[in-house]
Amino acid sequence: KFILCDRNAMAHLDSEVKEECLREDLKFYFMNPCEKYRARHQIPWKLGLQILKIVMVTTQLVRFGLSNQMVVAFKEENTVAFKHLFLKGYSGTDEDDYSCSVYTQEDVYESIFFVLSQYRQLKNISLGTLGYGENEDNRIGLKVCKQHYKKGTMFPSNETLNIDSDIEKDCVHLDLSKSPQDWKNSSFFRLEFYRLLQVEISFHLKGIDLQTIHSRELPDCYVFQNTITLDNKAHSGKIKIYFDSEAKIEECKDLNISGSIQKNTQYVLVFDAFVIVICLASLILCTRSIVLALRLRKRFLDFFLEKYKRRVCDADQWEFINGWYILVIISDLMTVIGSILKMEIKAKNLTNYDLCSILLGTSTLFVWVGVIRYLGYFQAYNVLILTMQASLPKVLRFCACAGMIYLGYTFCGWIVLGPYHDKFEDLNTVAECLFSLVNGDDMFATFAQIQQKSILVWLFSRLYLYSFISLFIYMILSLFIALITDSYDTIKKYQQNGFPETDLQEFLKECSSKEKYQKESSAFLSCVCCLRRKGSEDHLIPVT
């Protein structure tokens, strides 16, 4: 009997020890870095690492951004230069989505042969570092293609049309060995405009970007794939001329540059490698913290089910999943991949600036957003985070409903007003125009630019715009703000009167109610908890 009583007492004591150890570990897990340091004198490595990473990643992004700006500026400036070089009568400003237009047959022939003549004497007239490049057929020269209906006759005065709608495409390659006069005498350029659909002139040019030398970087070599298109598909008496230039960066075959550029490149590569090491360390620490948190979660779920014979609510289970750690892991992965791409670009092995800038830019965004986590430890700053968390589900549901109305107005505006208004020409432009109207931008210009060629459409446009602005600004936008304001007021009341207690919070609260008992038995319980914690990896708690 005494043995049975002793076993029951020991089992009861052992369960109390487990409960107290679990409570201490949970309390420690939900502490901020300063509280953890005061509790167990553990240095907040992740906090220091995140601060260092912010400085390193931001510095890396600024340097890469300046380099990327030079690349984009070089491409855009060359495109403008090409338009002035190869488009006859180019004014310096595109007319619409096309560069310029012609209205007579003579202007068409002059525009085509102007391109051929300028291409032939390019090295004598260009101010840039340009040379001739090989096209898809590995030939230097111009490729001219024309598309036209197969055959047909047309007499507009008699309202007679006989045409074969099959489309033929004829191409010819013009090299530098022939003179412009020989090209003009070719039968290929005798155009039948009533059958002509378009004329396409394509050629490749090569250039070297020397401005990077001033920034102590290795220069890039470019291949410009230029295409000039004379579009006559509308047969309206107006031929639109499009100019498209696609720039590709290639590795320069032979670079011999004296000076300190090579040494500067090595320093940048070492800096990028250090950024990768920092991000990998942050990635490992955050992954370890998530794994240990999941173990602690499993201990709490098992204990709660064993003691109270019921499951923990979902809200308490999600408390163990730290979204900030997940955000940091995503940011670290993007920074590591972006840094590797940046090192390859710096070494001139890769040329994908756009992908690298997206990865580094997004990762820097996530790094700075992650700083909010540490501000959330202060009550004055935590209001923003709690308000966003509370209002997000309601805002998403509200946006889903409002989005249906928005899409309806978008399709309606595109179909009805598209032929009469520049801002309603396509769905993307309509969506952007309506979004600007919701924010109160460009209202008068949107009303004024509608063409009054159709009274019915003009009246409909007024009804359409007035109803959209009234509905979205005065009703939907006000309700949207009211949802966020309501969540803010709720959070403020909770901060004053206390938040609703969950199972997890009530379990942790028992710790304060048993302080007197803990003081009496603290020596024994602490000894047992420490021994258990040293002997089991499940009791390890991540350091923040």
TrEMBL record:
Main location group: membrane
One MF term in GO for this entry? Answer: NAADP-sensitive calcium-release channel activity
Q: Where in the cell is it found?
A: Cell membrane; Endosome membrane
- Residues covered by the Mucolipin extracytosolic domain: 71-253
* Record key words, sorted: Cell membrane, Disulfide bond, Endosome, Ion channel, Ion transport, Membrane, Transmembrane, Transmembrane helix, Transport
Q: What are the residue boundaries of the Polycystin cation channel PKD1/PKD2 domain, all occurrences included?
A: 356-491
Annotated Gene Ontology cellular components are:
endosome membrane; plasma membrane
**Which InterPro entries does the UniProt entry name for this protein?**
MCLN_ECD (IPR049134), Mucolipin (IPR039031), PKD1_2_channel (IPR013122)
**How is this protein situated with respect to the membrane?**
Multi-pass membrane protein
An example of a Pfam family matching this protein is PKD_channel
The protein's annotated catalytic reaction(s) are: Ca(2+)(in) = Ca(2+)(out)
Q: According to the lineage, what is the superkingdom?
A: Eukaryota
Record-annotated membrane-spanning stretches: 267-294, 324-341, 353-375, 395-417, 463-484
| Coiled coil ranges | none
Name of this chain's protein:
Mucolipin-2
Native organism is Neovison vison
Which gene does this sequence derive from?
Answer: MCLN2
